Amino acid sequence: MPHIERRRQRIFYEEVGSGPTIVLGHSLLCSGEMWAHQVPALAETYRVVNIDYRGHGQSGTVERDFTLSDLVNDTVAILDELEIDTAIWAGLSTGGMVALRAAIDVPERVRAILVADASAEAEPPYLKLKYRALGLGARLVGLRPFVPAVAPIMFGETTLRENRQIIDDWVPNFLSIDLPSVLRGLEAVVTRDSLLADLGKIAKPTLVMVGNEDVAQPVPRSQKIAEGISGSSLEIIPRAGHLSALEQPGRFTEVMLDFFDSVANP
After folding, report:
1. What is the rounded CA–CA span in Å between residue 190 and residue 185?
2. Cα–Cα distance between 25 and 164 in angstroms, integer?
3. Edge-to-edge strand order for the sheet containing 47-51?
């Protein structure tokens, strides 16, 4: 995979297809492989830039704290490397929060955004405590004992009950992540600032998506995003939790493509 070096941080990405550019951002505890179901369909019509965020996938380990705004700047640096002026920014969870910030902070680089299973709010204090406690426990005994606690956060009830294979496939990737790096990623997410007051500044075509069983970023948070961005639309994916693109890939890809086609061919 190609990569860039930015401030001593190595960041990998995959580039496939041709046409209008879509840049993909993944969830915490995942990598660009999260989009395995979507990339082949997208690449038939679009140029797809699929990024491994800092400390995830094939990107280098993280030696210092960072913020979601750093991930926006990393993405812009990759677009600069590829000589791409504007792109559709699509992201799930962390990736969705990055897309929102890009639409506010660097709107000239954004053609449209797709925000899935994300939040424009600051993390509630009790959840900060919960996630930091999980992180502290992982530092002491490793990640494996926390799989039973993390899986219900990442996946919906339907997947947990009916499609354990997805979870079995996800666990090795989860366990392979460099722990100090992912904990810095967790801190970037839980210390995020609220964007609720700034959503009205977003003047780009916007699609908000969320799994109806998402407990990490529940449906009302996506509803607030859609309500705050004029002209945006909201799609609730049934029988899906936080990783809706993995849990219901057929429906997710269909909705995603319909939106991208409407933006690319208005």
Report:
1. 9
2. 24
3. 3-6, 9-16, 47-51, 21-25, 87-92, 110-116, 206-211, 233-237
DSSP letter for each residue of 30-67: --GGGGTTTHHHHHTTSEEEEE--TTSTTSPP--S---
What's the pTM value of the predicted model, to 2 decimals? 0.96
- With contact defined as beta carbons under 8 Å apart, do 217 and 118 qualify? yes
pLDDT for residue 266 is more than 80: no
In sequence order, what are the residues at sequence separation of 6 or more whose Cβ sits closer than 8 angstroms to the Cβ of residue 196?
A: 120, 121, 224, 228
Over residues 90-133, the pLDDT tens digits come to 999 999 999 999 999 999 999 999 999 999 999 999 888 988 88
User: Is the CB of residue 244 less than 8 Å from the CB of residue 210?
Assistant: yes
The span from the CA of 244 to the CA of 249, in Å, is 7
Which residue, 78, 55, 81, 217, is CA-closest to 89?
78
